[in-house]
Amino acid sequence: MRHLLRRIFFYLAAVWVAITLNFFIPRLAPGNPAQALVARLAQKGPVPPEMLKAVEAAFGINSSMPLWQQYFVYLGDLLRGNFGMSYTYYPNQVSDVIGQSVIWTLILGGVAVVLSFLLGSLIGAVLAWKRGSLGDSVLVPLMNFLSAIPYFWLAMIIVFYLGFVLRWFPFSDGYDLDLDIGLYPEFIGSVIVHSILPALTIVLSSIAGWMLTMRNSMVTTLSEDYVLMARAKGLSSRRVMFAYAARNAILPNISGFAIAIGGVVGGQLMTEIIFSYPGIGYSLLQAVQGQDYPLIQTIFLIIALAILGANFLADMLYVVLDPRVRQERSA
C-alpha cells in the first residue's frame, strides 16, 4: 500500500510538471495565433490594420494579460474541462476536433502496436529457444537491417510499390470518401482496407525492436538456475519456454510496450501525413503550423496522461509478473 501511494504521488507530480511545460513551451514561439493567421492572409492580398485586433477578439486572445495570470486561467479551465476553441479549425471546440481525430489514431496505432509487440515478443522467444538455427541466423540480421530504416522512408516505399505500382491497397485517407461515416459493413470494410498500408508500416518498423530485445533477454534468462532446474525436472519444452523463461524475459519489453501504448495517442505523425490518414498526429501538425495553443496543449496533455497512465499500469504489472518485485516491496 505504501508503494502504491508513493507511485500515485509521483505520477501526480509528473502530471503537474507536464501541464506546466505544456502551457509555457508553445508560448516560447514568437507571435501569437492571430498574427500567424493574419500573416497567411497577407500573402494572398492586402490586409487592413484592424484585422489583427478583430482576429484576436474572435480567438479570445488577450495579449495584455501577464503570462503568469494566463497560466492560472489555463489551470482553472482544465479543472472545469474547458479546453477552449481551436484556432486552426475555428469555430470548432478543441474537444470536438480531438474527438474526431483520436478515434482514427487509436484504431490504427493501437492495433498495429499490439500486433507488433505480440509478434515480435513471440518470434524473439522462439528464436532464442532455437538459437543457432537457420531461422535465427536469417531473421536476426534481417531485423537489424529493418530496424535501421526510418519508418517514414519505409512508408514511402510501401506507398510506391503496394499502392502506385501494384495497386493492391488504397494509400490515402482513412476510408472511401464517397461513403457516409457509420457502423455498417461497407464503411467498416473500407476503413480496414485503407488502414492496411499504414498499419503494415508501423508493424514492420517496430517489430524488429520487440523481437531483438526479447531474443537477447531470453538468451540471458535461459541460463538462469530456475530455468535449468525446470528442465532438470523434465517439464515440457513449451512450459519451460513460456512459463519460466519467456515470462521473465518479457519484463524489459513491458516498459517499452507501456510507453508505446501511451505514445499511440500522439499518433504516428509522418505515417499519417504520408497516407493522409485523419489521425491526431496530423491535427497536431496543423495546430503547430497555426500556433493553435489550445489544440497543441490539449493534444500534448492527452499524450502525457496516456504515457503516465500506461507506465503506472506497467509498474503494477511488474508486481504481478515478477515475484522478486513483490518481495522487495513487501519488505
TrEMBL record:
<feature type="transmembrane region" description="Helical">
    <location>
        <begin position="102"/>
        <end position="129"/>
    </location>
</feature>
<keyword id="KW-0472">Membrane</keyword>
<feature type="transmembrane region" description="Helical">
    <location>
        <begin position="150"/>
        <end position="171"/>
    </location>
</feature>
<dbReference type="InterPro" id="IPR000515">
    <property type="entry name" value="MetI-like"/>
</dbReference>
<keyword id="KW-0813">Transport</keyword>
<keyword id="KW-0812">Transmembrane</keyword>
<dbReference type="InterPro" id="IPR035906">
    <property type="entry name" value="MetI-like_sf"/>
</dbReference>
<keyword id="KW-1133">Transmembrane helix</keyword>
<dbReference type="GO" id="GO:0055085">
    <property type="term" value="P:transmembrane transport"/>
</dbReference>
<feature type="domain" description="ABC transmembrane type-1">
    <location>
        <begin position="102"/>
        <end position="314"/>
    </location>
</feature>
<feature type="transmembrane region" description="Helical">
    <location>
        <begin position="295"/>
        <end position="321"/>
    </location>
</feature>
<comment type="similarity">
    <text>Belongs to the binding-protein-dependent transport system permease family.</text>
</comment>
<feature type="transmembrane region" description="Helical">
    <location>
        <begin position="7"/>
        <end position="25"/>
    </location>
</feature>
<feature type="transmembrane region" description="Helical">
    <location>
        <begin position="191"/>
        <end position="212"/>
    </location>
</feature>
<dbReference type="GO" id="GO:0005886">
    <property type="term" value="C:plasma membrane"/>
</dbReference>
<protein>
    <submittedName>
        <fullName>Peptide/nickel transport system permease protein</fullName>
    </submittedName>
</protein>
<dbReference type="Pfam" id="PF00528">
    <property type="entry name" value="BPD_transp_1"/>
</dbReference>
<feature type="transmembrane region" description="Helical">
    <location>
        <begin position="249"/>
        <end position="275"/>
    </location>
</feature>
